[in-house]
Design goal:
With about 290 residues, the protein is an all-alpha fold. Helices cover about 75% and strands about 0% of the residues. The chain has twelve helices and two strands. Helix 1 crosses helix 12, helix 3 packs across helix 7 and helix 3 packs antiparallel against helix 9. The chain starts with a helix and ends with a helix.
Length: about 290
């Protein structure tokens, strides 16, 4: 590196230093602090005795941990493929050269700018029995039914998944839409000359071009779904009977309701390693397919 380049790098340090300090204090340090907490009997008041791996042994023998982990995994299974397909479909619709193009883009993306509290309040209001909007529409269609959307285990999952898709699909739609607009028009023009149909164009031109961003969306969706917490807490509270309680809610209740921060930190690390392993697998598969 020449002297001029070295001086330029030094000048950048004061601008990078505030972010580096904040990142160190609020990201790196808590990681090691959480690991320390998982090895102690630790509560909100003080650090107590060193217990080694006892918290990890307790976690593996805890049925509530496995139940909430399964609930979280079920949410990932239900939302990830549906989210990707729905976002792709909406992006294709929003990319059509019609007068409604701007309306489609705005209406699909609008829910994603709302806070989770607003989304949850709207969901509860719409899903109430007897007076809720959803049941009112069902009755207006002549269907003689009064579903209790938030009191039945199956319907609770349907409600949470539906609300989550409506709330967050707009962001993924924008990612797909951006990639769609980057596909050169010459590809489609050449295929039209060869007599390719719209389906052939989608299968052999559009879809291959969207695979890279599709991988990114799948990874981001898996990570986000495994961290689900707020909308479930606000809409169902983890009920009925703990059927929808995710792992992060159990971690929260253990740490701040039961005053057991050490065990909460232990389960947090379990979730961290699950996400880390899934990310590594996804990235390795991506490299193998690209090589």
């Amino acid at each position: 590196m020449n002297k001029k380049g070295w001086i330029k790098d030094v000048k950048a340090i004061p601008f990078l230093l505030p972010f580096f300090i904040a990142y160190l204090l609020f990201t790196i340090l808590p990681i090691f602090k959480g690991l320390q907490m998982s090895l102690y009997d630790w509560n909100l008041v003080r650090k107590m005795d060193f217990v080694g791996l006892e918290n990890f042994v307790e976690m593996f023998n805890d049925p509530y941990f496995w139940q909430t982990l399964w609930n979280t995994t079920l949410f990932v299974i239900l939302t990830t493929p549906t989210m990707v397909l729905l976002a792709l479909g909406l992006a294709l619709l929003a990319n059509l050269n019609t007068k409604l193009k701007t309306f489609f883009r705005g209406s699909f993306f609008l829910p994603s700018i709302l806070s989770v509290a607003v989304i949850s309040f709207l969901a509860i209001f719409m899903l109430q029995p007897y007076s809720g909007l959803v049941n009112t529409v069902i009755q207006a269609l002549g269907i003689n039914a009064e579903p209790f959307w938030l009191a039945d285990k199956t319907l609770s999952w349907v409600s949470i998944v539906g609300v989550t898709l409506w709330w967050s699909v707009g962001f993924n739609m924008i990612l797909f839409l951006t990639s769609l607009q980057e596909i050169p028009d010459t590809y489609y023009e050449a295929s039209e000359i060869d007599g390719a149909s719209r389906w052939v164009q989608f299968r052999y031109i559009t879809l291959p071009q969207l695979i890279p961003i599709g991988r990114v969306i799948i990874l981001l969706q898996i990570l986000a779904s495994y961290k689900v917490f707020a909308q479930i807490l606000l809409i169902t509270g983890g009920g009925p009977g703990g059927a929808t309680r995710p792992l992060i809610q159990y971690i929260y209740e253990t740490g701040f309701t039961q005053n057991n921060l050490s065990y909460a930190a232990t389960m947090s690390y379990a979730l961290f390693f699950i996400l880390l392993i899934l990310s590594i697998i996804q990235l390795k598969n991506q490299r193998l397919e690209e090589s």
